[in-house]
Amino acid sequence: MKEKSSIAKILPVMFGFFIMGFVDVVGIATNYVKSDFQLSDTLANILPVMVFAWFLVFSVPTGLLMNKIGRKNTVLLSMAVTFLAMLVPLISYNFAVILVAFALLGIGNTIIQVALNPLLTNVVSGEKLASSLTLGQFVKAIAAFLGPIIAGFAAGSLGNWKLIFPLYAGITLISTLWLWMTSIDKEEQEEKNVSVIGCFSLLKDKYILAFFIGILLVVGIDVGLNVTIPKYLMERCSIPLDQAALGISLYFVARTVGTFLGAIILAKYAPGKIFIYSVILGILGFIGMLVVSNLILLSVFIFIVGFACANLFSIIFSYALKRQPERANEVSGLMIMGVSGGAIALFLGVVSDAVGSQIGGVIVLLVCLLYFLYLGNLFAKTDKK
């Protein structure tokens, strides 16, 4: 029997999560593009919509595509699209071109998120899945954490924040070649006679439906914070964008720490319990963000929120895959369609413009987090079975 968890097979798959993290550059990019073209919040937040709307369109078809060409080949396809996305902004810099670039980034990220999580099951054993998915999110968080720092350095020291794109293109190319040259055990093929309708029929399972809504909201919270934090800090603390942008890095530092610890803790303790504790901590963090205006205290609460939310996605995803493991490709496609929840950023922009304050957007995100108290109850019922 072949050793499933060979380190030589795990490493290139895990590095794929680093490429997955490139999508989070949309947060700081939205703020730079807004400044460069003097856009309103509503118009600027079209940028993350252009990224995350594609999850609604391509997630389920990608799940079906995996049944035909395999998980590894699907991941390689995603990296090719991501590489192309990184080249587009080098052609010209105007709002239309940036929208095209981030649309391609969204398509590539949709494909990799659908395919990479099931591919991980090819190289790790089932009892390590939740911990391994969290480790993947840790790697993704590192990329997300570095994005604002690289963009800020490029803008401040090199005079052009867009230099982040050729760097990302080079890293994507390296990851593509590494995975392509790695031999991964052939995955167990799922039933080929599947369809989009059959995939959506999974939602008849009330647990799968609840998990899907959970993915929708957790990504909405993540992207919403990614886009809102700099503007919130600028409004509450009267600081410039370059300084406020570090708030995103702080958020992703917290997520990075949270996912690192989560990968260790989830290997020993029930994911459902960790989930509910995290949600309660996140609610307290959001309340703190709303009631303080001191930069240091706000930074502390931003860190708490990032730390609390770090493992929610991977825990929900692991429960979904374990719910119907025989249809893992379809479940993955359906769950990743929920990543379209990132488009909530447009709604946050509308709310912020309507009330004249970023506080409105933060309140919306807090309300979204309250749903996870219900989801934690479902996890508890699942663990008892």
TrEMBL record:
Q: How does it sit in the membrane?
A: Multi-pass membrane protein
**Pfam families in the record:** MFS_1
List all membrane-crossing ranges.
12-33, 45-66, 73-91, 97-117, 138-157, 163-181, 207-225, 245-267, 274-292, 298-321, 333-352, 358-380
Q: What is its main location?
A: membrane
What InterPro entries does the record tag this protein with?
MFS, MFS_dom, MFS_trans_sf, MFS_TsgA-like
Q: What Gene3D superfamilies does the annotation carry?
A: MFS general substrate transporter like domains
- Superkingdom of this protein's organism: Bacteria
**KW Signal (keyword) present:** no
What does the UniProt keyword field contain? Cell membrane, Membrane, Transmembrane, Transmembrane helix
**Major facilitator superfamily (MFS) profile domain sequence ranges:** 5-385
Q: Where does the protein end up?
A: Cell inner membrane
Keyword Transmembrane found: yes
| Annotated protein name in UniProt | MFS transporter
